[in-house]
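fyi for ur records
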Amino acid sequence: MRAALAFLALIPTAGSATAAPQLSVTATYEAKLLLKVADMRTDQVITPDSYRAGARLTTISALGVIKSTSLLVQADGATTGGAPSPQVYLQSEKNKRRVVRFAAANPADPLTQLLRAALRPGNGSPCIGTAPIWDGRQRYDLTFAPSGGGKAPFGLQQATTCRLSFHPISGFSSKQEQKSPFLRGDPTATFAWEPRAQVWVMTDVAVPTVVGTGHIALTSLHAVGVRPAFAVPPPPAKPAHKRR
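which gave:
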């Protein structure tokens, strides 16, 4: 179950951005495992030189395993050259608040890594390989490996499924590093291409467990704008030649 929750934290609810042109993508999800266990709303706002991504996850007490709680996460960063680079990551749960500031592109916060998958080109794949993640407390890798096709709802196209492998590195207890006996294999995430906005959208996460397969399924999608042309830094100036 830890791998599934780690991926839930990956998913972007954001505020507004002032730069134009911009792309805004809002999605809602419902998580079910025998019965409904969580609601989630995600937003991504992308401009030529910046981004803001976030998520609100509300879990519902169920099965004696999942406790009712609300998790808010948000990331801000730059998109210079089309490569999302994190600057600030915020996480809030109950009365606890965490602020993480980044000085380098990797490792990145979980929201930035998901945005990197969303911004892969349409002729490529959202399965971005190993994503090094740092959330201010725990350092881990989440590997997105190609694992076939899938369904593409809401007029989306080119459904692609990625197998998710969780690899703890630091900040975990020995118990947390052990694979949960509740899981029966790695989760998978399905993405589909939004042809008008030109981004990949997560449509489903399947989590195999001892009581059946849980799903985090897309229930609504609203995209405004088109993926912007990203700012490209100018080439470095050539050194002036000295006269003899």
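The chain has one domain: 2-224. thats all i got for now
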